[in-house]
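pinned: reference chain
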Amino acid sequence: MSVPQVARKIVTAIPGPKSEALKAEHTRYVSAGVGQGMPVFAETASGSTITDVDGNRFIDLASGIAVTGVGNCAPEVVAAVREEVAKLTHTNFATTPYANYIEVCKKLDEHTPGDFAKKSVLVNSGAEAVENAIKIARKYTGRSAVVVMENAFHGRTNLTMAMTTKSMPYKQGFGAFAPDVFRVPFSYPLRDDFGADGAAAAKAAAAKIELLVGSANVAAVIAEPIQGEGGFIVPAEGFLSGLAEWAHAHDVLYISDEIQAGFCRSGKWFACEYDGVVPDLITTAKALGGGMPLAAVTGRAEIMDAVQPGGIGGTYGGNPVSCAASLAAIGIMEEQDLPAKAAHIGEVVESVLGPLVDEVPAVAEVRGRGAMIGVEFVKPGTMEPNKELVGRIAKRTIQEGLIMLTCGINGNVIRLLPPLVITDDELNEALAVLKEIIVEESAK
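pinned: its structure tokens
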């Protein structure tokens, strides 16, 4: 590797001896169904780096799957958690409420799209947020059908598995699934017949809805403004707005799943803003908690109030310690203008990796918004997904000091989700390493 180690520090074989020992215990005591994406075990983290138990330091290009947008162990978040956990660990908000739950809901009202009155419910995870959004939509509309997108990922509960496209590993062997879920094509400019014509893609999706289920039976349409697990797919301009317009014309609720793309990740507070979409309901999680478990459903007040008291919520949802972490994280986003920082990261990534589309035949596309970038790989001279090459690239990156994830229905996309506080030096070092690996592995 020709790139000097500066932010990175590799001092043992990967994995090192302590990680190897922990791997044996992982195999013995942890369900195989959990899996282990990386062969190393983290011990400490700071900002945009993670240090494993053997003393190897990695540049983090995953952010815990978009969770640590404000950085690993952000001092403000750590201080807020320490202060809160010494005051109040848990009461259950529906039993004995507390102020910072309300403060998080106020911040959600402030930053989510729409100038109408909004309300929120706080829960634990993205899947739980999606499931509650569907419950709310069904209650408000009196309808049961839910329309989801091809390539979508919404979670691993029974309902959200039904809403998720990819069978392996998320759905294999877990059926039967929840009914009344209908799937329509998402705009995929690289591969679909519509290309950059998002409006036409939206019309085709709407026609499919009418054919499959009929608008009068649909409670909600839900879409990720940038598909995550599906391949970091950015729909063509006009697709999301066209879908939302169709929904509102037929009294169908439009739900934006911003669990991965939200909270500054895309270069705006929420990625649906790029297409001018104002959703009726928006689901958030991941970066919302600053590293602590927290998720939310936010929406028009009259929709959120349609549910009977006790119909939504849960024992741990909006835990006071998680709410304290969230308020600290949102404060960092505001004070450091992390939407602008994310946009800058995207520009740097595009400047380094974008030229590979013309230089490396296996690179079909570099796409994304802000600090949410995917690189899709194909077999040269075709559009056939190249999962094997992506596997080799991913294996090399960890050896060279990068933590990076893959995605895509066919497993042929690498995804970059660095903390939004990553420095230019760290980012440039990581990109130089990644580019070298891509070029070398693609030449084999």
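why pinned: The mean pLDDT is 97. The chain has 14 helices and 15 strands.
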